Amino acid sequence: MANKKLASEKVTYEIDPYNRLIINKSGKKSRLSRFRQVLDGRFKIDKDNTVSYYIKAPMPKGAEIPYQVKLQGKWSLSVDHNLCLTLNKWGRETLGDKLTLQADVIDTSKNSLVFALTTTTKENTQSIYILKLKGAWQADKHNRLTFRIQREQGSHDILTFRGAWEINKQHQIIYQYEKAQLIRKRKKIHTLIFQGYWDIKDKGRVSYILDQQSNSVFAFKTSIGIFKDKYIKYEVGIGVSRKPKPIKRVLILFGKWKIKKSVGLIFEVEYKNKKIHAMVFGAEAKLTAKDSISFKLKNEKNKGLSAQLKLSRKILKGDGLSFLRFLKSKGESTVTIGAGFRW
Which residue range(s) make up the domain with 207? Predict the structure, then answer.
């Protein structure tokens, strides 16, 4: 923490292009070095996602500056995908400055977001280090990707990725953004890949689950789904800044339908490295005149999804054929499977 003398002065903070903290005691931002002190050091984040700046020795000659400066404020993400911290007012004198870290996203794990920072000392020694924020991934009301940073007493800061995401051939969510390197002035495309799987639990909504044990789930609002024998199709609108209309993304999940006697109706989707994940549905099923089965789909809580599916007996195997024979024995009756129902 800062000492009493520093806290009593009118102080503003800045960050230079090398991610070094600048303390300006004049209370005004200035390009003149005599008003500012550039401090070599590194930012670190604690378990409460609070950031501190650890200053490397030796200190500037004659400076009365602590070894550690704790910076309290609200996190956000800039339009250029830099990490920003808007400082809280410190006592009566310090202004609410906004610090922008020149940082690149390097990892989007299920419950964390990792940035890489490049810094340079006064001796022109360059190094790279990371900052890791803890929280949960979620979608906002515009179907944009957001990261909710967990703070003290249950509060959250929200980092919003304002661009439109896409789906790759492995059914994964990918997000790309172009960013100019401040020092080298060259633009670089950054690609973020989210490891997860799709599931459908509610009407008009499809979810991409990063971690089943936490709240890291992108729950997107969608159009009515189209369910066919080899794929499931949804349309998602993403509200992007400066765009008058949402950007449309078509989500197509290719897979195989199966009927499991102890489970219900499942749809198996293959992801990266041939990893299979099955979505589970309940359904009201009825045999049609052409010896195929018509399903009205439900979720695991037996609530309707406003989705219908028709499967030919040609693609049914194992338990599916047994279920087909069971339907024939029931004549024109409707049979419920899944959600605790047995046949």
Answer: 197-337
330: pLDDT confidence band, cut at 50, 70 and 90?
confident
**Long-range contacts at 317-321 (CB < 8 A, ≥ 24 apart):** 317/258, 318/258, 318/259, 319/258, 319/259, 319/260, 319/261, 320/258, 320/259
Give pTM, 2 decimals.
0.87
Question: Does residue 343 lie within any of the structural domains?
Answer: no
pLDDT band, very low/low/confident/very high, at 57 (cuts 50, 70, 90): low
CA 75 to chain centre: 15
- The H or E element that residue 326 is part of is helix 319-330
**Structure tokens, 65:** 């500056």
Distance of CA 29 to CAs 35, 100, 343, Å? 8, 14, 75
List of residues 6+ apart from 183 with CB closer than 8 A: 17, 18, 118
β partners of residue 129: 117
Is residue 18 within 8 Å of 120, Cβ to Cβ?
yes
DSSP 3-state helix, strand, coil percentages of the chain (rounded to 5)? 10, 50, 40
Instruction: Say how many residues make up the chain.
Output: 343
Tell me how far apart the 2 most distant CA atoms of the chain are, in Å: 93
The DSSP-derived string for 208-254 is EES-TTSS-EEEEEBS--EE-SSEEEEEEEE--TT-SSPEEEEEEEE
Given 172, 194, 216, which residue is the final one in a domain? 194
Residues 6+ apart with CB under 8 A from 120: 18, 20, 126, 127
Torsion of Cα atoms, 4 then 50 then 92 then 100, to 10°: 110
87 and 201 inside one domain = no
Question: Is 84 in contact with 99 (CB distance < 8 Å)?
Answer: yes
Q: Which of 148, 173, 194 is the last residue of a domain?
A: 194
Instruction: Work out the mean pLDDT of the chain and round it to a whole number.
Output: 86
